[in-house]
Amino acid sequence: MSERILLTGASGFVGRHVLDDLAARGYRVRTAGRSATPASPDVEHVAIGDLGAPVDWQPLLDGVDHVVHSAGLAHADGDIPEERYRAVNTEATLALARAAQAAGVRRFIFLSSIRAQSGPISEQPLSEIDTPAPSDAYGRSKLAAEQGLAGLDLDWVALRPVLVYGAGVKANMAALLKLAKLPVPLPLGALSARRSLLAIENLSAAIAFALTQACPARRSYIVSDPEPLSVAQMLAAMRAGLGRGPGLIPVPSALLALAARLAGHSGAYERLANGLVASPAALIKAGWRPPAETKAALAQLAASRADAG
Question: Its GO CC terms (predicted)?
Fold first, then answer.
């Protein structure tokens, strides 16, 4: 009989892909989420309401071999109180982990974030041996959950993904796709700082690997595509998927920064112009093999968006 997994957050961008991947690998999946509507009609689903409120996890863990906890309060610009991040991302995670320990769950996979380790930009490449230095409430809440897991008698693995992209992606990557689709040259050819990305297929493969005994447990792993790219390279790959040339003009960064400041988009420009390279070497050394190559995956994403209109 196949192993059973409790998956939280299955209705989100990441969770939907992970659900499909786990089912394709032969796992029996039970999902738990805020909505009463299942992410898929083919899986058992339990509505649990707001993660910030107490949840009785024990019935959901009956017969469960592993937990994949991808639910949480996502990073957002705004005035979300630190207490709210901690309630959802830290305390709810640890409540589920303690219930999993009591139920004899064999492995607990926690989707943390690179923001548990660093702010949105980094001048130096990141690895797990670096002292974590989250810069906001979201990152602190994720790091606190990892630290709490370390105090439990439970086989856990925390994955710290960088920016994830794939079908259905929103926010920053969706905005970059819109730029790539514009039928005009873009003045971003001089943006050479590299950033690590993560194809959703590679994240799903990392979760599947972390569920196995081949992956050393009780530690955190950075998850990223092996090859970081500059924004110019990302746009070129996307436009290749659209059957077009790069169409990038190398406007000096000082002029771009001035234009962004005048338009009130300094924050967005800073994220574009500065790098964040995070090495997945530890997970690769353990045996993870990412199936998707970054430029090809970006091209495919752009092509699929074009086909969808």
Answer: cytoplasm
